[in-house]
């Protein structure tokens, strides 16, 4: 098919050039189109039409929202958006690890800035279709003397265009950013973002994206703060600095965050710890290494309400979200669940959840 051929062609390009081409194609309408799969999940008063979302980092500047939704995603999270425009880190800053189905990036919050993004979101909203859920992921400028205040500024500017706001304090590519995951700073940043909502007279769900490299103790401490502060959801996880068991010999030592298949087990284990601790007191969004329905189902079985993907869109092509949603709907029906929430958190260990997911896929989905 033409779209699979195009996906293969992009693999011949440098990583960032391929990324930019994909965003451009989606912005110009050069993409397949799918009827959205209905598999609704309700979080924080927002109904997501299906559980598979596009993670932040792909459409950083709200350039290709309509095209992204056309691929079957139930939600699209744009960003990370910073208050002021900034170029990010020097190029090259995206590196493929083909033997590992992975990428390392050190983009560094390259952003057109909140004002440009706001103008694009305003334009898109004029033609927004019912049920399309847009998240806006916000971050701090590299040169900022007050990073916490940057979140206030960005939220105040962008809140009206978002169905939810994600606070990104877990990118490894902005110096000092991950320090904001510590309990005192985290509490302060949540209060700051809430005050921004109050300033504009709105109240919308807040998600917070955490790093997979937090110790279990620090992860649970952060989640305890979020529960106390009534944050709607936790996104687990961002990219990792670990380089365990990689096959690639060329780019494995590059500085930056690792995404793709090697992140899957680590992010699942952190997700499971979070669910076992929180016990349904906060929504969980599972991200990291999802490239199949088996991967998505594993995260749901470990406690995810929603899942997001990004790397597999580049690795597998534009059919990935629609295919996973179709297969999740089949699994849900075949296993007798009224909805996917009934499958959420059935297992408290990665190995058990993975085995159950693999068995379900093998039993109910012949094409797998």
Describe this structure in words.
The protein is an alpha/beta fold. It has one domain (2-364): Aldolase class I (TIM Barrel). The chain is 39% helix and 15% strand. It has an eight-stranded parallel β-barrel with strand order 3-4-7-8-9-10-12-13, surrounded by five helices. A three-stranded antiparallel beta sheet has the order 5-6-11, with no helix packed on it. The chain is globular and about 55 Å long.
Task: Give the SSE layout.
Blueprint: H1 2-10, H2 15-27, E1 41-43, E2 46-48, E3 52-54, H3 65-70, E4 75-81, E5 94-97, E6 102-105, H4 114-125, E7 133-138, H5 147-158, E8 164-168, H6 183-199, E9 206-210, H7 216-228, E10 233-236, E11 257-260, H8 264-278, E12 283-287, H9 293-301, E13 306-309, H10 311-316, H11 320-334, H12 350-364
Parallel strand pairs: 3-4, 3-13, 4-7, 7-8, 8-9, 9-10, 10-12, 12-13
Antiparallel strand pairs: 1-2, 5-6, 6-11
In short:
The protein has 368 residues and is α/β, with parallel strands linked by helices.
- Would you count the extended β strands for me? 13
Number of helices: 12
Radius of gyration: 19 Å
The outline comes out as: globular
Q: What is the mean predicted local confidence, pLDDT?
A: 95
Encode the helix/strand succession as letters: HHEEEHEEEHEHEHEHEEHEHEHHH
Largest sheet: 8 strands, parallel, barrel
CATH architecture: Alpha-Beta Barrel
Oligomer: single chain
């Amino acid at each position: 098919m033409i779209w699979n051929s195009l996906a293969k062609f992009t693999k011949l390009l440098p990583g960032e050039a391929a990324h930019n081409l994909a965003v451009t194609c989606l912005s110009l309408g050069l993409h397949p189109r799918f009827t959205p799969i209905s598999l609704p999940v309700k979080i924080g008063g927002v109904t997501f039409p299906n559980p598979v979302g596009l993670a932040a980092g792909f459409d950083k500047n709200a350039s290709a929202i309509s095209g992204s939704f056309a691929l079957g995603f139930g939600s699209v999270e744009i960003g990370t958006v910073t208050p002021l425009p900034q170029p990010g880190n020097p190029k090259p800053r995206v590196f493929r690890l083909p033997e590992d189905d992975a990428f390392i990036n050190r983009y560094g919050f390259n952003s057109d800035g909140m004002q440009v993004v706001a103008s694009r979101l305003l334009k898109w909203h004029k033609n927004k279709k019912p049920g399309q859920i847009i998240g806006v992921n916000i971050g701090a400028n590299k040169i900022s003397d007050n990073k916490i205040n940057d979140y206030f500024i960005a939220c105040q500017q962008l809140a009206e265009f978002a169905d939810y706001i994600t606070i990104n304090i877990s990118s490894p590519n902005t110096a000092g950013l991950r320090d904001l995951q510590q309990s005192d700073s985290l509490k302060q940043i949540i209060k700051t973002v809430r005050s921004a909502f109050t300033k504009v007279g709105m109240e919308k769900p807040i998600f917070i994206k955490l790093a997979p490299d937090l110790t279990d103790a620090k992860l649970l401490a952060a989640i305890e703060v979020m529960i106390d502060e009534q944050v709607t959801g936790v996104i687990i996880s961002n990219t990792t600095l670990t380089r365990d068991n990689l096959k690639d010999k060329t780019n494995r030592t590059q500085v930056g965050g690792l995404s793709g298949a090697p992140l899957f087990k680590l992010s699942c284990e952190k997700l499971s710890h979070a669910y076992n601790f929180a016990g349904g007191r906060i929504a969980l969004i599972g991200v990291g290494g999802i490239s199949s329905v088996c991967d998505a189902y594993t995260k749901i079985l470990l406690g995810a309400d929603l899942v997001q993907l990004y790397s597999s869109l580049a690795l597998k092509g534009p059919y990935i979200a629609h295919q996973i949603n179709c297969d999740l709907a089949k699994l849900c029906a075949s296993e007798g669940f009224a909805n996917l929430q009934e499958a959420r958190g059935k297992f408290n260990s990665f190995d058990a959840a993975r085995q159950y997911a693999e068995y379900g896929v093998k039993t109910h989905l012949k094409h797998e």
